[in-house]
């Protein structure tokens, strides 16, 4: 009888603690969702550390076009991430950075280049992909802890998803506030890509850009910016 | 003599990109497509066939027919695009925009065998805007015989400044 009483006494406390923790977490997530997508109003703007996720092929080409017109002094230092299987993208970023360094005489902090493991390669079995996925997530987490970017620029495909989710979690946990910008590929005219759809629907992207007016009609929170290519 | 031959050379360049697209290679290798191209004044057909298993028939192009040659991959795709008078390409955005930037007439052939066929969206949209022709492997000969290259409109260069402006505004950076 005594024992039962004791047990009944402590469990409501535990439940109360658990419930309030969950409520705090929900409140925090709601606050982050509310605050995300609202423009920042810094009194005296400072350069922001910027993570640029390079997709491969056409995705990288579109991102390079965006980088070319950004004022690089504001987006500094810059970190580039590409898939470990993609040899070309980081090379293209290096060419761009070198051309900037030449024109400014090599001032400013140098860019850093990193590779990320993909969770699953084409044709890989589902059993082994559980292991590789966990490894890829751990690797993405490690990179994000090292970089802790204030701005994330990405335009698909899937490589950017774990990085964006981690950036969002950093916002929730108060580790680092970041602004996430996603540009949907020019190849998407009528439907969003899976990566785009996830970042749009889950409201992880602070600003979401599309290149065709049809998509903007379908996804009203997106900004139509015209063709990058 | 060589000079005259060079100036009379009108090359059609076919590209399947980094993977394979046998249905396209097979389609351009049919007699009806080759005859149609020759009738329209093209003299050479060069096919980049990628990893495909279908090998087109080579031809020297004597006795009034199209000269046909092929290769699997090359690092000088850009040179072939530049020297082409007509490009027939798979629907990858890289090939499409590289060709449009060079101002070359382009027929994009959509690969119906691809699982997630979002690629046709881009080709169809650009065809609607009269920047290129969009075809399927079975309709390629029809597209070639019906096409009027003078009606194609040049593709305006892309512009990333609207994205940059919105990003700057969001982050509160001064706009110059």
How much is the radius of gyration of chain A in Å?
21 Å
Q: What's the CATH class label of the largest domain in chain A?
A: Alpha Beta
Tell me the name of the CATH homologous superfamily of the largest domain in chain A: Glycogen Phosphorylase B
How many helices of chain B? The count is 8
Strand order across the largest sheet of chain B? 3-2-1-4-5-6
- Kindly identify the CATH topology of the largest domain in chain A: Rossmann fold
Order of helices and strands of chain B: HEHHEEHEHEHEHH
For the sheet with most strands of chain A, the description reads:
7 strands, parallel
GO molecular function, one term (chain B): hexosyltransferase activity
Protein name (chain B): Glycosyl transferase family 28 C-terminal domain-containing protein
Domain Glycosyl transferase family 28 C-terminal (chain B): 11-163
Organism (chain B): Turnera subulata
Characterise the protein shown here.
The complex is a heterodimer of chains A (229) and B (176). Chain A is α/β, with parallel strands linked by helices. Chain A folds into 2 domains: 1-35; 46-224, Rossmann fold, CATH 3.40.50.2000. Helices cover 50% and strands 16% of the residues of chain A. Chain A is built from 7 helices and 7 strands; from the N terminus they run H-E-H-E-H-E-H-E-H-E-H-E-H-E. In chain A, strands 3-2-1-4-5-6-7 form a 7-stranded parallel sheet, with helices on both faces. In chain A, helix 5 (160-173) links the parallel strand 4 (151-154) and strand 5. Chain A is globular. The model of chain A has no long low-confidence stretch (mean pLDDT 90). With 176 residues, chain B is α/β, with parallel strands linked by helices. Chain B has one domain (2-171): 3-Layer(aba) Sandwich (Rossmann fold), CATH 3.40.50. Chain B is 38% helix and 15% strand. Chain B has a 6-stranded parallel sheet, sandwiched between helices. Chain B starts with a helix and ends in a 5-residue tail after the last helix. The relative contact order of chain B is 0.15. The model of chain B has no long low-confidence stretch (mean pLDDT 92). The interface between A and B is medium-sized, with 39 and 27 residues.
């Amino acid at each position: 009888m005594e024992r039962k009483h004791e047990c009944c006494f402590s469990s409501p406390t535990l439940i109360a603690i658990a419930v309030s923790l969950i409520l705090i977490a929900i409140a925090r997530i709601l606050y982050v969702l509310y605050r995300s997508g609202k423009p920042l109003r810094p009194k005296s703007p400072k350069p922001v550390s910027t993570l640029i996720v390079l997709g491969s092929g056409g995705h990288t080409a579109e991102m390079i076009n965006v980088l070319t017109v950004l004022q690089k002094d504001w987006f500094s230092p810059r970190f580039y991430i590409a898939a470990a299987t993609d040899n070309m993208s980081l090379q293209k970023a290096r060419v761009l950075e070198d051309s900037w360094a030449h024109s400014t005489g090599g001032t400013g902090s140098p860019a850093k280049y990193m590779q990320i493991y993909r969770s699953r390669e084409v044709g890989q079995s589902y059993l082994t992909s559980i292991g590789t996925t966990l490894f890829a997530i751990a690797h993405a987490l490690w990179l994000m802890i090292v970089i802790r970017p204030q701005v994330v620029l990405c335009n698909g495909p899937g490589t950017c998803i774990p990085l964006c989710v981690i950036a969002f979690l950093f916002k929730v946990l108060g580790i680092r506030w970041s602004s996430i910008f996603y540009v949907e590929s020019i190849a998407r005219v009528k439907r969003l890509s899976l990566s785009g759809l996830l970042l749009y629907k889950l409201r992880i992207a602070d600003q979401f850009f599309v290149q065709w007016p049809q998509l903007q009609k379908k996804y009203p929170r997106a900004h139509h910016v015209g063709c990058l290519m | 003599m060589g000079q005259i031959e060079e100036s009379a050379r009108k090359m059609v360049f076919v590209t399947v990109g980094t993977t394979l697209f046998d249905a396209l290679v097979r389609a351009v290798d049919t007699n009806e497509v080759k005859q149609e191209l020759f009738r329209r004044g093209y003299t050479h057909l060069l096919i980049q066939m990628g990893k495909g298993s279908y090998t087109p028939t080579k031809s020297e192009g004597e006795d009034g027919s199209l000269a046909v040659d092929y290769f699997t991959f090359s690092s000088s795709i850009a040179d072939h695009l530049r020297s082409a008078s007509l490009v027939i390409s798979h629907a990858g955005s890289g090939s499409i925009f590289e060709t449009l930037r060079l101002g070359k007439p382009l027929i994009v052939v959509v690969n119906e065998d691809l699982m997630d066929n979002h690629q046709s969206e881009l080709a169809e949209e650009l065809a609607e805007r009269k920047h290129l022709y969009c075809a399927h492997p079975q309709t390629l000969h029809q597209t070639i015989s019906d096409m009027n290259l003078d009606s194609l409109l040049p593709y305006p260069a892309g512009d990333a400044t609207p994205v940059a402006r919105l990003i700057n505004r969001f982050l509160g950076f001064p706009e110059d």
